Amino acid sequence: MSIxxxxxxxxxxxxxxxxxxxxxxxSVEWKPEEVANLLESWIKDxxxxxxxxxxxxxxIANPKLEVxxxxxxxxxxxxxxxxxxxxxxxxxxNEKGKELFKELRKQCF
Length: 109
Known about the structure:
Number of strands: 4
Keywords: Membrane, Transmembrane, Transmembrane helix
Strand order of the largest sheet: 1-2
Oligomer: single chain
Structural class: mainly alpha
Distance between the termini: 61 Å
Largest sheet: 2 strands, parallel
Helix content: 55-70%
């Protein structure tokens, strides 16, 4: 096979990789009310984990809401000072965490 074949194949691979990365990190439109309601569900200990997983996996187009998303994600990890562990993998917000999420919720609007 000729060198042009391999260069063409390599070029296609680079383009495919670029397009995949671009598609993977596209921003999602979230409304302030949607973010606020999701944060409120943590405060009320009634989290929709399917919705939360999506919230964690996406990047929000609105920069203000994206900062809130990042702070909320950091707050809910097991070793966080804002979480108390309830079961094997589940946790809930402690009082300090609820105060943080109340503040983040206000910042949505």
